[in-house]
Predict the 3D structure of the following.
Amino acid sequence: MSSVGLCFLLFLSVTVCYWVPAGCYANGKVTKVCGSMEPHHGSSGQTGQSPYRLITNTTVFSPGDDILVTLSGSSYFEGFFLQARDATSQSSVSAVGTFILTNPAKTQLLTCNNQQDSAVSHTSDARLTEVIVMWNAPKDAPSAVQFFVTVVAHYKTFWVKQPGPIIYQHGVTPHPPQPTTTTTEAPTTTPSILPGPFTAEGCGLWKTCLLDPPGCDPKEELHCFFLSMTTVGLDKTSVMFELSGPAEGYLSFALSWDTWMGNDDVYSCVKDGNRVSVNAAFVSGRTHPEDESQSALSLVSWRLADGAIQCKFNRPAKLSSQERYDLDQEYFLFLASGRAVQGKLLKHSRQPLISTTKKRITGPPEILKGSRGPVILKMHGALMLLAWMLTGSVGTFIASFYKPDWPNQTLFGQKVWFQVHRALMMVTVTLTIVAFCLPFFYRKGWSKHAGVHPYLGCCVLALALIQPIMAAFRPSPDSHRRYIFNWAHWGVGSAAEIMAVAAMFLGVRQPSLLLSPPWSTNILIGYVAWQASFRFLLLIHKHLYIRKSQGSNDQQAILSDQSQPGHWGSFIKLLILGAFTLGASGLLVAFLSIIATI
């Protein structure tokens, strides 16, 4: 690698490690709650008088008529969900008729009960004070139709299924509407504030604990992630959970049948202002928790202190709800944390802590071990580091500076430097191919949240595959086109090395395998500095001896030097090669030890 390439490599190595991609998202589709019309916001709807009203421009209609429906209020609102239903059947949850938008920029049509355009909702959380839509009466419309609306003022402040006006078909005598009530199952106890922090005392004796880092105590260490489970009573009819850890917005744990996110029973402690809301939910995939409720939880208490969230609650071991898992079964435990906005959970910023084995929640007390790094991603990182911190770097190091050494010695019919270089680079290509495939096996496709890292990985793999193909078709040493191959082989190899180092710097910031930022980054910077210093040392050595001999055109080509520095010079270079390899191996082992501890 030339001095220009080394300078660029150092610059890119130091700057790229501070680049972290960001992203955001929005929603507005609420078809999952067509029946209940209740938002999954982790809290109960308001029971007081709503500041919003729903009106129509008429009280009578005929099939095919268009009715003007207006939602307005004395204060703004951020979301709504509007439907028309059969007023003659209070138990009906099927939508009636279809809607027509008057402002498609702020409202959208939804499909409920397989009926297209049968509901209307917001398109974003932009503040609204009035919404006007048209409702079209179907040919088979019931004799009376009532409009219902759910209005969200803020994420945690909303009114569920508020009854609106009833309109009647021509000739139908209006009847007083039956009272419509919306019942919300309340928690069995009022949350209280914990008197003090939790403690790891009793872990493995009378309670099961999952700790990160292992052996930490939430009473003494602010950065301790702590989950404990204690059975209550001799018959173990309920379990008391304690959850603690540093978090900006929420702390949650999940019961899962496997180590993949999805179809999990989730329990969250969410910071909402100066208080904490505790609820149970269900995650059907890599999505926001659904069907949040507090009805299954009792003896709820919480605490906010020094940037940590702590909560405690009891849950029966067996529940009738199919979405609440039976605690007498074995599950993997997930422990995650992240940010929350107005009580709404955002994607966790790092890989959840996952227990290494399944645990029966009501089983004997024990101290569980966990890991934030999936084994398959650890293998990906380890193989890539082995390929580009050791075999690849040593292979290119030998090709760059050791061609004139051992001139009279061969290995399997070829010069020693060539055979060693070829063997190391073939190992590098093989390791790269295997490591490249592992994340796809884990993600079952392309990762949309990994930033530039996977794109650099694709480029490194492509360049690594081009090198042996190019070498297979290289011209003979005395060919007049040999210099083209020399330049191309050097250029592609240098580009692959630079991109590999950049990918390593970005890789340590990946949420799925988040390494210790100071140590992992410092090791990579040390590796780049180590390689640059030895290359610079041998460039000086090469410059001192290149004047002593004259070679062929091919010998003067890029990265070629067939001068013979003598026995003493070769011995010095051999010591330099050994020191370089030993140092690279040490840095690699240090990096692998960090990966192993995740």
Remarks:
- Residues 6-27, 177-189, 550-564 have pLDDT under 50 and may be disordered.
- The helical segments are 3-16, 375-401, 416-443, 453-472, 482-507, 517-546, 567-596.
- Residues 298 and 314 are 5 Å apart (CA to CA).
